[in-house]
Amino acid sequence: MRRETIILGIIIFFVSIIVYFIKNNESIIKKIKKFKYANYSVIIVSIGVIICILFSIDEIRHNINLYLFSKENSNLYDKCDKLISDEKEYYDFVIDVEYGKNFSYSQPFIPEGFNYVEGKWDSGFIIEDEKGNQFVWVPCGSDEELSVPKLQKRYFSNNPLISIDQCYDLKYKDFLNSALLNGGFYISRYEIGKENNYPVSKQGAIVWTDITQEEAIKLSEQMYNNEIVNSSLINGYAYDTVIQWIKDSNITIIQNDIEINDNYYAGRKDYNHIYDLFDNILELTLEKNYDTVITRGMYNPDVFEKYEDLINRFELRFSILENSKYNYVGFRTVLYK
Questions:
Q1: Distance CA 213, CA 223 (A)
Q2: In terms of domains, do 322 and 240 share one?
Q3: Backbone phi, psi, residue 77, to 5°
Q4: Fewest Cβ atoms closer than 10 Å to its Cβ: which of 146, 183, 228, 308?
Q5: Regarding predicted confidence, which is higher, 302 or 174?
């Protein structure tokens, strides 16, 4: 835009001079000689030249900045592509280990400090700590022939907004090893709420929103993370496995059951004893897409009215700006040994 403006100004300048001298029917040389204030004209022309030079310098600076920005983006893409490649390589390695065939997925471990509440291992096994926080067991394995979903990220073939190749998890190694070794993991039964400025997984708690991914990571780890059990912001593997588990359970998801409400409270609708997985707000994950972070969940009829199959709607991923906060974005945690 700047280059075009300079060129246009120069063209208009010279065209005006030519038109002026043609109109007065005199040559340029004669006109300059007859001009009483030739020195002033030299000054004016010199100023014009200086202005053009300054504009040119500004244009050069602008082009340099564009180059540096492009180079920075290229470095970012290269770095992220490397992270994606490393994650895939690690997953391919760990999934080949003989995990999940000892049927540990049907024997959920109960961390010290938690008690069994209700439910079966394959349809929603619920545990609760002494403060009333509840989590649900999600069984998984490394073999697609097992009676539980394979722990994996999925390719989004149903009208995807973001493909798996564009996403990577900030943390995943410990979770992958634990989930495969123990036949599953726990997911917070509710979207994480706020109670006395502390994260909780309780029915009726006001969902903790207006939060960045970094803050959600710290709060998730703050819940437990000791020698007994680890807590973490949910990652892509956990989210996709939960979705597959619900689909495998042949549960009919009724569109009319889903509501949108400006006042977000945990515990409105559940499947396999997990509440508000896709009918309340967006949920932050450990996934990133270059310089944006990935969220899941929330049914929005204005956005998804073109999708006929509701199950496809909450399988999609959405990216938001890094370090951004929204009152419709919360988070969910996972527990693992």
A1: 16
A2: yes
A3: -65, -40
A4: 308
A5: 174
- Pairing outcome for strands 318-321 and 193-195: unpaired
- Whether 235 and 301 share a structural domain: yes
User: Which tokens sit at 256?
Assistant: 């009319």
Q: For residues 3 and 9, what is the distance between their CA atoms, to the nearest angstrom?
A: 10
Transcribe 102-166 into DSSP letters.
T-GGGS----TTEEEEE--TTT-EEEEETT--EEEEEE-BS-TTSSS-B-------SS-SS-GGG
What whole-number distance in Å separates Cα of residue 250 and Cα of residue 86? 35
Nearest alpha carbon to residue 290 among 253, 321, 325: 321
Same domain, 107 and 234: yes
Mean pLDDT of 86-105: 83
Q: Is residue 87 part of a domain?
A: no
Rounded to an integer, what distance in angstroms lies between the CA atom of residue 293 and that of residue 284?
8
Domain coverage including residue 26 = 2-72
Mean pLDDT over 194-202 rounds to: 95
| 301 in the same domain as 160 | yes
62 plus 102 within the same structural domain: no
Q: Is residue 210 part of a domain?
A: yes
- Domain assignment of residue 259, yes or no: yes
Look at residue 183 and tell me whether its pLDDT is greater than 50: yes
Phi, psi of 177 (to 5 degrees): -60, -45
